[in-house]
Amino acid sequence: MEDNEAIEIVGAERFSNYTGYASSFRFSGDYVDKRDVDSFGRRRTRIVAIDALCNAGMGQYELKYLLRETNKAFCGFLDQSKCDHKRLFRDGGLKGSQCIQADRDDDMDEAPPRLLWCEDPENKIGIATGNWGCGAFGGDPEIKTIVQWLAASQALRPSVSYYTCGLKSLQNLNQLSQWISLHGWTVGDLWNMLVEYSSQRFNRETNLGFFAWLLPSLFSQEAT
């Protein structure tokens, strides 16, 4: 795919349970998909495929690659059929979608909908995602989390259900997202901080993760 392309699969139906990931991926029994269907008889599901940077190393902190990843996620999260460009790029800046950390044991199909803040109450379709571009791809989980939150917010998605898969570096995601939301930060505010941090990280001026760099007082208390 090009950097401004995404693939959307509409109406996907699940037939199997599974365990593992990649080489450990295994079939573990039948699954009956009980999701509602639309007027065409398709399940009301959408799966988005977006390709992340692979093994970018320290390069992932360069501005051009931050932009690449944020734009790629935005392309995947934007609902083109309901796109209102005036709202997407209004001068005041958008507030963020509610970022929710899901426990690593949660089943993405069984987790209840949790919509705590909504930019558009008429369009309550959020994003369910996880550690995109991390693992074998070598992405920084804290950066990728924020990139996806920014993209979902700019795309006017009302919520993000984030599945951390138990990563220790993301254990304070709820606290971070709540602090940012309570202080009324816009997408632009958070983006500017991400750019500043990434510049320092790329130039080896800091070795802290983004969460601890952004809120040192909060995370120093957690460490004690």
From TrEMBL:
It comes from the Eukaryota. One of its GO terms (molecular function) is poly(ADP-ribose) glycohydrolase activity. GO terms for biological process: ATP generation from poly-ADP-D-ribose; carbohydrate metabolic process; nucleotide-sugar metabolic process; regulation of DNA repair. One of its GO terms (cellular component) is nucleus. Residues 1-172 form the PARG catalytic Macro domain. Pfam families: PARG_cat_C (PF05028). Transmembrane segments: none annotated. InterPro entries: PARG_cat_C (IPR046372), Poly_GlycHdrlase (IPR007724). PANTHER family: POLY ADP-RIBOSE GLYCOHYDROLASE (PTHR12837), POLY(ADP-RIBOSE) GLYCOHYDROLASE (PTHR12837:SF0). This is PARG catalytic Macro domain-containing protein.
